[in-house]
Design goal:
Elements (H helix, E strand, L loop, with lengths): L1 H21 L2 H15 L6 H11 L5 H21 L14 E5 L1 H10 L3 E5 L7 H8 L4 E5 L5 H13 L3 E4 L2 H12 L3 E5 L8 E5 L2 E5 L2 H9 L3 E10 L2 E6 L11 H22 L19
Parallel strand pairs: 1-9, 2-5, 2-8, 3-4, 3-5
Antiparallel strand pairs: 6-7, 8-9
Amino acid sequence: MKRLRFRLEAWLITAVLWLLGRLRPEAASNLGGAVARMIGPRLRVSRVADANLRLAMPACDAPTRARIIRGVWDNLGRTACEFPHVPALRETASGPGYELEGAAHFDAVLAAGGPAICISAHLANWEVMPAAAKRRGADMASFYRAASNPLTDAIIIERRARAGVTLIAKGAAGARAGVAHLRAGGILGFLIDQKMNDGIEARLFGHPAMTASAAAALALRFAAPVIPARVIRLGPARFRVVAEAPLALPATGDRHGDIAALTQAMNDCIERWVGDTPEQWLWLHRRWPREIMPE
């Protein structure tokens, strides 16, 4: 029964991706945004987003929170329906594609020939950033959470491979592969904005938030520059990819303290980015401990 369900799910996803791929990128984006705006705000999970906003941005009144949540769903629907078009997106001056700001930071890593860490967040269409870095010549690999359906997982891997993105599944084997990638001089990408219960406590919008520390630990282990990079949505299938100057690596000799300090610096980047475009972040995730959340 499970095998049949896996096959049906994979067939449905393949069919939807094929249909979306027949549309122009802007049309696919607009379709996803319209459907998600209509359905998403009515779903129970939107209450999670509202509670997160009340905790993180208490100055936002109810109408502002509702507008942000509607924007979150709009962006999420667009991101989902843009997925089959990401491999075709290029750096362009207008229309579907992206503009790249701060490319010199990636170029410096390539010129040095050494390993680097790239941190980002679930902002705008986060699939665009690793693809843009890869097209810049960066040997980038990104961690991801494997789908429970192996057939669906294979579809995701194949689609992202079309954009030149190498994926490493989270887990013990993935950790070893990530270390090997850094040893070979590659760039390892992390989305660090989601809750990780076995991470370390850092602050986000002034509140404790369990945060993955692997990016900081590996950066210090390899003395690798940490490049913060984010995606900003400018319109349907239109983005700005922004690479920032590498974060300073603490070197106090206290390894645990240095990891904590660097992890906090990463969270500070996330907080600044989300503050700039709150409607483009994934507020639907339970990011903070339940005991400090508003009712």
